[in-house]
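Fill in residues.
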């Protein structure tokens, strides 16, 4: 057994510099306003402080740094969210100074946690041919956008892909055939990498799962099947459809960022500012979506968003995206009725005035600091492992050799009290005496001794 023992953190703390410093991840505070063009065509008017505003420019000025935009393959039922419409949306986002996350649904209609319907043109293809079609659609879309100066900064390979993608409704709910699923996912990921290879912007790849209870088992199965080349984990979190509390969402985020070399984003969330809307179209979020302590009021909506975002950052996530803040009621008809199913969960009130929830974007959040656990390396030592309560119970993690030391770099909240131990084998860490320490206010080295 290898022993480790506590030392004075204040006496041994030092600022990380040079190669020892963990790379600070980007932060994303965004809005999915894929309805923007449709809302404008339907006559929606948005105001802030009584003045009429343009959606993209308004959210940029309100503190957003990213716009999320969806794309369907061949949505003959609507003139929106096709390539022509997406070009217009990305151009508007770029004009406002926003980064862009392009969300491929790989369907002619909505793809979500319950259904992943294959585009009509792909329905009868074999799986290898579907993979080729998925690659071509992704690659051609991105290279077309790049030629027009519209390459997105981030790309989702699928939307809420809980079930088997490019499939039928029944199969999407069945156990996933991971040999097939992995072939399709890897085709999409490769298309993004290939399209970005010669482009000025090389999009980051996100994989996206709905509701935190589904995230860890899905990514574990994906990794086992060989789906490993991604930069971000996207999570949808709606209390109406999730069995997890906000706190449990935070625990999932913490475990995921230690399990995979990827940033974690809550890429969809929303909260109602009113228990019901004012038009005849049924509301998707109502009293069944409420969390104790967060009433369906403008103030309750703001508190939900600020508390959720602080939780995401505190647990090591890198951002939150609101869906869909400007889907307000208009005289236009949808397949569900006239108006909007989301008007009581937008970030504008029923008269089109911006709500206080928008201030979530400029709240001064507390972010984690860089922390490096370091233990001297001994001659001939092949590997060293670390375990601690900050890992959320995922088990010992391998440390990295850096010169004369084994190191494990992460980011933790300042003031966090932690317990950590190290050993030469993963099995031995649990039996090793642990270090107890408090994370300092700045980047910190926590030395562990043999």
């Amino acid at each position: 057994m290898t022993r480790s023992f506590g030392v004075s953190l204040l006496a041994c703390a030092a600022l990380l510099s040079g190669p020892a410093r963990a790379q600070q991840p980007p932060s994303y505070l965004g809005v999915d306003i894929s309805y923007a063009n449709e809302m404008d065509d339907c006559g929606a008017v948005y105001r802030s402080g009584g003045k009429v505003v343009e959606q993209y420019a308004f959210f940029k000025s309100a503190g957003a740094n990213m716009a999320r935009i969806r794309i369907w393959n061949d949505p003959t039922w609507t003139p929106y969210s096709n390539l022509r419409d997406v070009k217009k949306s990305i151009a508007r986002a770029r004009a406002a100074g926003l980064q862009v996350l392009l969300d491929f649904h790989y369907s002619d209609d909505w793809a979500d946690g319950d259904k992943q319907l294959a585009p009509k043109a792909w329905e009868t293809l074999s799986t290898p041919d579907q993979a080729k079609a998925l690659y071509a659609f992704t690659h051609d879309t991105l290279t077309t956008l790049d030629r027009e100066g519209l390459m997105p900064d981030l790309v989702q390979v699928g939307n809420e892909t809980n079930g088997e993608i490019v499939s039928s409704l029944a199969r999407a709910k069945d156990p996933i055939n991971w040999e097939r699923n992995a072939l399709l996912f890897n085709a999409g990921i490769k298309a993004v990498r290939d399209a970005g290879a010669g482009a000025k912007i090389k999009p980051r790849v996100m994989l996206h799962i709905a509701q935190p209870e589904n995230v860890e088992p899905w990514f574990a199965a994906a990794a086992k099947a060989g789906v490993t080349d991604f930069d971000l984990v996207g999570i949808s979190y709606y209390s109406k459809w999730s069995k997890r509390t906000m706190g449990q969402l935070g625990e999932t985020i913490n475990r995921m960022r230690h399990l995979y070399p990827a940033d974690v984003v809550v890429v969809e969330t929303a909260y109602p500012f009113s228990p019901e809307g004012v038009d005849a179209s049924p509301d998707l979020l109502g009293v069944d979506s409420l969390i104790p302590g967060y009433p369906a009021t403008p103030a309750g909506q703001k508190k939900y968003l600020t508390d959720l975002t602080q939780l995401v950052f505190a647990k090591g996530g890198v951002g939150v995206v609101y869906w869909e803040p400007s889907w307000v009621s208009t005289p236009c008809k949808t397949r569900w009725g006239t108006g909007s199913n989301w008007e009581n969960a937008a970030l504008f009130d029923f008269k089109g005035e911006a709500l206080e929830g928008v201030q979530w974007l400029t709240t001064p959040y507390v972010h984690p600091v860089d922390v490096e656990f370091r233990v001297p390396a001994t001659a001939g030592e092949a590997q060293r492992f670390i375990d601690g309560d900050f890992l959320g119970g995922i088990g010992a993690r391998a440390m990295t050799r850096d010169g004369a030391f084994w190191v494990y770099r992460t980011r933790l909240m300042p003031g966090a009290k932690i317990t950590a131990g190290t050993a030469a084998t993963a099995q031995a860490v649990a039996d090793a005496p642990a270090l107890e320490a408090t994370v300092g206010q700045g980047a910190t080295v926590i030395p562990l001794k043999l």
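The longest strand covers residues 369-376.
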